[in-house]
Amino acid sequence: MKKTSISYNKKKMANERKLIFEMIDASCELAARKGAHPMENGCNCIACVNKRKRLLEPHVKKWKFRL
């Protein structure tokens, strides 16, 4: 029984990985098709997703020292 569960898990992981790559490809194609555009709510192109990520990241503190 262990052998079947391992092969099932590998197939499941391969399917999940395939879906992730397909989603990434689709978002890159959408970004190429739309071209440069301002960030829109609900837009799933890779450019808008990256812009939203940058907005959610905490800002880096200013560096206190001089070179």
Q: Would you give an account of this structure?
A:
This protein has 67 residues and is mostly helical. It has one domain. Helix content is 66%, strand content 0%. The chain is built from two helices and no strands. The protein has helices at residues 2-34, 46-56. The longest helix is centred in the N-terminal third of the chain and has 33 residues, at 2-34. The protein is flat, with a radius of gyration of 20 Å. The termini are far apart.
Supply the key terms.
single chain; 67 residues; mainly alpha
Task: Give the termini separation.
Answer: 64 Å
Low-pLDDT parts are none
Oligomeric state of the chains present here: single chain
Helix content: 55-70%
Give the SSE order as H and E letters: HH
Give a quick summary of the entry.
Helix content is 66%, strand content 0%.
What's the structural blueprint in terms of helices and strands?
Elements: H1 2-34, H2 46-56
